[in-house]
Structure to design on (296 residues):
C-alpha cells in the first residue's frame, strides 16, 4: 500500500482564498483592514526571508502589514518599548516577534509583554493556559495547521490514539492539547522516552516535531496511520555540494506503510503562514467586538 499524500500547499492556498472573503467582510464592518505587525531583530538571513514572505502574504490577503527591523544590538528595553507601542496601536491586531532573538535578549520576557489578545503566535503563557483550559484564545500556528490537515483527512478524531514526538512549547505541547480537545488518547514522546518505536507503533496519528532528520522509520508506523511531519531539516543531498530539505520522518519508508502522510516540503510548512494570517483576522474580529464568522 502507498500512503495518500496530504497536500498542505493546496489546503493552505484554499484557506488563504477563504480568508480574503473574511478580510473583505471585516473591512466592510470595521472600516479598516486587519493589521499584522512583524518585528525582526538582527540580520539572520533565514529569518529575513521568513519575515519578507509573511509581509507579502499579509498584503496578498488584503490585510495591513507592518514590518519593523531592529539592529542585532537592540537592548531588551528597546524591544519591550516596541512591543508596548504595538500593543497600544489600534491599527495592529496581531504582533509577531520573529524568533529566535539574538543572544542576550530574553525571549520569555518579550513574549510575555505582548498583549495576549494580539499574540497571533499563541506563545503567551495566558494563551497556553487558555488552550489547556479549553477557553477561547489564540493557538500556535503550526499545531493548529497540523490539526486542520488531520481533520480534513480523517473527519472526527475522537477516540484515536495519537503520539506527538517532541515537547516544545511551540509545537509539541500545544499539539497534544489540541488532539486532547478532539478526544484523542494522547501520548507525548520525547528524547527520554523508552522504546520510542513501540510507542509510535500504537498510534493512529503520529505527529513528528523533534528536528531530527528522518528519525521516524517506516517500521515504527502502524499500517494505515496518518503521519504529520512537522520537521524541516536541511541535509546534504546525494549530489556533492547540494542540500535538500527532509522531515523528521523517513518519507520513502513511511510512504509504504502509512495511510496518509505530509511531505516535506509542501506539507505542514505552507499551513503555518496561512494560519498566522487566520489568527490575525480572528484577533481583529474579537478586538472590534464583532462576531467571528463561521468557518474562520
Ligand atoms: N521563527 C520561526 N517560526 C516562527 C514562528 O512561527 N513564530 C515566531 N515568532 N518566530 C518564528
Amino acid at each position: 500500500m502507498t500512503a495518500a499524500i496530504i497536500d498542505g500547499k493546496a489546503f493552505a492556498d484554499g484557506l488563504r482564498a477563504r480568508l480574503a472573503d473574511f478580510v473583505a467582510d471585516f473591512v466592510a464592518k470595521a472600516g479598516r483592514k486587519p493589521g499584522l505587525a512583524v518585528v525582526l531583530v538582527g540580520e539572520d538571513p533565514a529569518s529575513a526571508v521568513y519575515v519578507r514572505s509573511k509581509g507579502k502574504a499579509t498584503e496578498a490577503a488584503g490585510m495591513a502589514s507592518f514590518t519593523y527591523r531592529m539592529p542585532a544590538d537592540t537592548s531588551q528595553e528597546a524591544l519591550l518599548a516596541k512591543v508596548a507601542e504595538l500593543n497600544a496601536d489600534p491599527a495592529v491586531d496581531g504582533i509577531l516577534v520573529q524568533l529566535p532573538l539574538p543572544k542576550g535578549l530574553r525571549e520569555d520576557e518579550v513574549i510575555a509583554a505582548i498583549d495576549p489578545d494580539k499574540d497571533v503566535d499563541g506563545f503567551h503563557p495566558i494563551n497556553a493556559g487558555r488552550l489547556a483550559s479549553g477557553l477561547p484564545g489564540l493557538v500556535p500556528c503550526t499545531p493548529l495547521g497540523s490539526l486542520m490537515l488531520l481533520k480534513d483527512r480523517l473527519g472526527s478524531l475522537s477516540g484515536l490514539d495519537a503520539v506527538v514526538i517532541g515537547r516544545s512549547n511551540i509545537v509539541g505541547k500545544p499539539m497534544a492539547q489540541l488532539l486532547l480537545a478532539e478526544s484523542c488518547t494522547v501520548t507525548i514522546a520525547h528524547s527520554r522516552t523508552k522504546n520510542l518505536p513501540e510507542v509510535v507503533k500504537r498510534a493512529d496519528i503520529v505527529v513528528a516535531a523533534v528536528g531530527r532528520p528522518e528519525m521516524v522509520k517506516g517500521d515504527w508506523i502502524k499500517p494505515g496511520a496518518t503521519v504529520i511531519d512537522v520537521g524541516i531539516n536541511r541535509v546534504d543531498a546525494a549530489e556533492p555540494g547540494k542540500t535538500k530539505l527532509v522531515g523528521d520522518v523517513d518519507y520513502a519508508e513511511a510512504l509504504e506503510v502509512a495511510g496518509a502522510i505530509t511531505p516535506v516540503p509542501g506539507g505542514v510548512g505552507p499551513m503555518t503562514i496561512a494560519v498566522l494570517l487566520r489568527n490575525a483576522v480572528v484577533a481583529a474580529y474579537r478586538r472590534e467586538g464583532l462576531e467571528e464568522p463561521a468557518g474562520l
Remarks:
- The radius of gyration is 19 Å.
